[in-house]
Amino acid sequence: MSKIIAPKGTHDIYMPEIEKWHFLEKVTREHFQAYFYSEIRTPIFERAELFQRGIGRETEVVQKEMYQFEDRAQRKMVLRPENTASVVRSAIENNLFNTFYPLRFFYMGPMFRYDKPQKGRYRQFHQLGVEIFGEESSFLDAEVISVAFSLLNKCGLNNLNLEINSVGCKECRPSYLSVLSKEADKNREDFCKNCQRKVDTNPLRIFDCKIEKCKEIASDLPKINDNLCDSCDENFEGLKESLFYFGVDFKINPMLVRGLDYYTKTAFEITSNQLGAQNALLGGGRYANLVEELGGPKISGIGFAAGMERIILHLKELELLRDKRIFIVLQKPELLNEGITLCQQLRERGFVVLMDYKSKGIGKQLKKAEKANCDIALIIGEEEISSGLLSIKKLRTHNQLQVKRKEIFKILKEQI
Ligand code: AMP
Fold it and tell me: Which of 263, 193, 183 is nearest to 223 (CA)?
């Protein structure tokens, strides 16, 4: 019979890789909680309109990458391609803007984009991210960037580049866009088909194009941060100064416009030198109008999303903070009762313990302990029992020592 395989661009996650996920999830939760963020979980499918209105109809994500389907009642649904629009939808629907303080949320979960799969780019991938609503201050923008930066540092990622830009606002962007469109029109013939369309529909998105020729032309087009209104200009200056307070180094990239339409003013991206083509780890920015555009109050937001798979790719060399594992080894099958009792006592105290009920021979059990990637074997022998002792064998170093049975919990706590 032919084998059924997972859909292209998806992958199963299991041992030992799952340990990296647990590590990342734990560090992320603790990190965000320290900054007063609370977790929000939204559905993985939403009405298609949410993303069409939220992200923008002309973006690559909406044009080409959404997993869209009709449910049995012919409603147009989408597997979420990102989570900002969903968090905003949820905050409006649940009246969080009026009832919740502080409006600081974090999330982790799967996103879906019909993208061309390659290393670091998948069709089902995971993002962790934050969204803050209410306060509009360049200090807050800098804090959000610093939260992102320090999280990556905590995960052992150090070789990072932070790029920032201002993408303007409702006041300054329309006049800039008409200048941009006119200038881009002069090169219309040389752009790819997609960018030719963008010249008329949404010229800012030309800067998102990955095609070399388009990138080259785009580098000579007028840039948004040379065309900012006073308020955006002031905000951008403030951001640079505030980043200094938070001790974060940055580079200004006037071509950075982010792939989603809702950004206003601050936009940023963190890349890594170690990732090859898919070097973007994280991106975000401020969005002053999204909440209102989705039917909520006039309230500004800021957030970022990081690709968890891409962070995981970096975790390879990390000594993970996973719990140490114990294997109970019996010298004889008759000691099973002793073994099960000890096993349960250890598990109740929070240790990670495995034993093999059928195993014969210490050698075979030790092999299984190694196969299960255990750190310690606890050997129960007949003689030791009569003298109230147990043997601890450290499987990484092969050191062995005898300890008193009644002190085993205390000693393991110290050893592990
Ligand atoms: P975006 O939502 O497009 O701003 O992306 C934010 C981050 O999500 C990126 O910097 C990537 O790390 C990650 N990301 C986006 N698309 C994918 C994908 N198809 N596969 C894996 N990671 C992705």
Answer: 183
